[in-house]
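=== RUN LOG ===
request id: a7f3
mode: sequence -> structure
chains: 1
length: 292
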Amino acid sequence: MTVEEAKQIAADFDENRKVNEEDEFAFIEAMNFLIEELHDPADMMYLGGYYYELKHFDLALKYYEMAATYDYDEAYECLGYIWYYGRTGEKDYKKAFEYFSKMMDKGHLVATYKVADMYKNGYYVEKNQQKYEEIIEKLYHKVKTCSNLFDPVPEVYTRLAKIRSDQGNIREAVSLYYSAKDFLAQRIRYNAFFGNLNIMKWLIDDLYKLIEFDPDEFDFYDCYYLLNTPNKITFTYKGETQTLESEQDGNECAVCFNGKWYHGRDEFFKEACIYDKKLTSIYERLKNFKVH
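=== RESULT ===
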């Protein structure tokens, strides 16, 4: 294998299409070859991110730590996440705070709101709600002009929305949730990463604690709310009716879409397709939602 061949294999590998074991093996072999030949921390982060998406967190940690030896900024953010959430089975808030703080000092937006979260929750540092709110308020003014879909606009907006809700400013909170929802939906269209989907789920759950659900006007992501209880929903794609149902199954609802069952709303939003196209990638073309 040459460097050029390995790069082509990596370029051809698309996480949003269905791949077989042979495709995956070739991709991993190509990425490891590039890492050994070029020692580029961007390649280490790419492979680590692939494993993180698959929730193979031990392997993700391996490549993130490898990239960190090159003082690669993105690696510190990802290591912060691994230790903050205990992705490998052990939480270490001290390590998380140190990694996030290192990036916050460089003006990194994501690391900054994670440091704020640690003050809010009292993780490693003393709990300080005022400091949390001050950081989020300042971040809001920095991100509200951001246009890159991977900038942390919905992450900051949803935090500020909760602050506004607690302050009794429901109108502004709802407006922030709607703005965050639209921004996040566009991001998910390109990257249905489970972290992005979780943010959307929590956003929808919080939004409908503040406003009443309107069964005559809702969209694809509002189904997060409906699928949490037994419901039957229809919508159209290219004029064809699609059927979506949820049935109580223990503590949560199982979801059936066009005859195929999913363990719950998380799996549905992550996996559901029409003609091999993920619903998240064509959400704007899904129309005429109705509850029956």
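=== NOTES ===
The longest strand covers residues 240-249.
Residues 170-190 form the longest helix (21 residues).
=== END ===
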